[in-house]
Amino acid sequence: MAKVYELLEEEVWDGNTAASHALRQAQIDVVAAYPITPSTPTIQNYGTFMSNGYIDGEFVLVESEHAAMSACVGAAAAGGRVATATSSQGFALMVEVLYQASGMRLPIVLNLVNRALASPLNIHGDHSDMYLGRDTGWLQLCTCNPQQAYDFNLIAFKVAEDMDVRIPVIVNQDGFLSSHTAQNVNPLMDDVAYKFIGDYKAHNPLFDFEHPSTYGAQAEEDWHYEHKAQLHSAIMHSPTVIRKVFKEFADLTGRKYDLIDTYNMEDAEVAIFAIGTSYESAKVASDTMRAKGIKAGVVTVHVLRPFPYAELHDAFQKVKAIAIMDKSSPAGAMGAMFNEISGALANGKNRPLLTNYIYGLGERDLTQVELNEIYTLMNEDVKAGKLTHPTQLFIGLRGAKLAFN
User: Fold this and answer.
1) What gap in Å lies between CA 242 and CA 253, rounded to an integer?
2) What is the DSSP string of 13-53?
3) Is it the case that residue 332 has pLDDT exceeding 90?
C-alpha cells in the first residue's frame, strides 16, 4: 500500500507540482510518459513519488510521446486508470494516437503544458498545441493558475470516467507562466481527493476474458460515420456531467467553476476574451480601465471542448465590442477563437464589433500597456459605431506592423 503524503492546508506549488500531486492522489494504475519541456516536472515529480513509496501503480518510461500515448491506450483498454503529460512537439507526435483513444472511448487524462510548436524551435508557451488538439475527440479543460491545474486534474478523472461520458480529457495550463510559477495552492488531503474521484470502474476491459471485447476494429463506410456521430453527441452532451462534477467539487472545496468564467461583465460595454494566464492579466486591465470610466469586462473558457457556444452567446449579449485574443499563429485565417466566438454570436440578436488580436507567440510578453490600449481602441470603435482598424491585429510584434482585414 502506498504511503500517505503529508500535506499542509496551504502549499506553495507551481503548476507542474500541483498537477503531479493530483495524479498521485488519483492512485493511477499506469502512467506512461516521455519528458519534454515544460511538462517534464509533472512526470519527474510523479517518478519521485513512486521511488519514495507514495504510488502503487506502474510508471512506464517509453522512447517517444507516440509510444507514451500508445501505452496509455493499451493500459486503459486493459481496464486501468491511466494518465500522462506532454507539451508542444511531443503532443504533435501523440496526435495520431489521440484519435485512437477518443474513438475507443478510453477515459485517459492528459496534462498538456502549453508550448509553441516549431519551426523555429521555441520552448516557451503559447496555445499552438492546445489548438492542435481541438478536433481529436478529447474533452479539453483550460486552467489559469496552479490551483486550477490541481483542481481540474481531480475533476478530469471524475468526468472522464463517468459512465455517461467515457471520453479522454486534456487539462491545459500555460507553459512556464503557470507550470513554473509558484503560487499558494490549497490541496485536499489524500483520502479526501481519492474519495472525490472514486474507485475506477472498468468498462469492457480486455482482461475480462468472460466477456470478450474488441478494440481498434476496422469500420469502413458502413459504420465509421455512426461511430464519429456518437462520439460527437457524447461530447456535446458532456456538460451535464461536467457541471455536476463542478458542483460536487464546489460543495467539497468552496471553489466554484463553470464552463466559462467572467469578470466585470454585468454592465460591460467592451470585453476581452482570453484563455489561461492572460485572463488574469486582463482582469487587472479591466479594473484599470473602469477607474477611467470605460466599462471593461473579461471572459474566458474553462471548457474548450465541447465549446460553450450558448454560454458565450449569453455572456456577450450586452457588449458592444469584443477583443478576441488568440495565442497561436492563425496561419492564413482569422484566429481559432475568433472563428469559434463568431459562430457563437452568429444567430444572436446582439452583433458586437469583433477584433482578432494575435499575441504572445513563443511567449512574447503581454503587457498591461497593451491590454489598456486594446480596451481604449474598443471604446473608440464603439463611439464610431464601426471598426476603426483592420479586423485582425498582431500586437507586441517587432518590426513592421501586421494587420489584416
Assistant:
1) 16
2) E-HHHHHHHHHHHTT-SEEEE---TTTHHHHHHHHHHHHTT
3) yes
- pLDDT tens for each residue of 340-368: 999 999 999 999 999 999 999 999 999 99
> Please, what is the Cα angle at 364 between 360 and 368, to 5 degrees?
80
| Range with lowest mean pLDDT among 29-33, 265-269, 306-310, 398-402 | 398-402
Q: How far is CA 319 from CA 270, 307, 340, 384, in A?
A: 6, 20, 17, 15
Contact 300, 271 (CB under 8 A): no
34-55 pLDDT, tens per residue? 999 999 999 999 999 999 999 9
Residues 243-260: pLDDT tens digits? 999 999 999 999 999 999
The set of cell numbers assigned to 53 is 513509496
**How many whole angstroms separate alpha carbon 325 and alpha carbon 47?**
36
Q: Using DSSP, state whether 98 is helix, strand or coil.
A: helix
Grid coordinates representing 260? 466559462
Within 8 A by CB and 6+ apart from 271, the residues are 265, 296, 297, 298, 299, 316, 319, 321, 322, 323
Q: Which cell is 350 given?
A: 446582439
Amino acid at 166: R
Residues 6 or more apart from 263 whose CB is under 8 A from it? 279, 282, 283, 286, 297, 298, 299
Evaluate whether 269 touches 319 at the Cβ level (below 8 Å).
Answer: yes
Per-residue pLDDT averaged across 8-19, rounded?
98
* 263/144 Cα distance (integer angstroms): 14
Q: What is the dihedral of CA 299, 303, 304, 307, to 10 degrees?
A: -90
Distance from chain centroid for Cα 244: 18
Q: Looking at the DSSP assignment, which residues form a beta bridge with residue 326?
A: 358
Contact between 285 and 379 under an 8 Å Cβ cutoff? The reply is no
| Calpha distance 242→237 (Å, rounded) | 9
Tell me what pLDDT residue 1 has.
Answer: 74
pLDDT at residue number 141: 99
Contacts of 295 (CB under 8 A, 6+ apart): 264, 267, 268, 269, 270
Closest CA to 33 of 45, 22, 21: 45
CB 387 within 8 A of CB 355: yes
The burial of 114, by beta-carbon neighbours within 10 Å (0-12 exposed, 13-18 middle, 19 or more buried), is given as buried
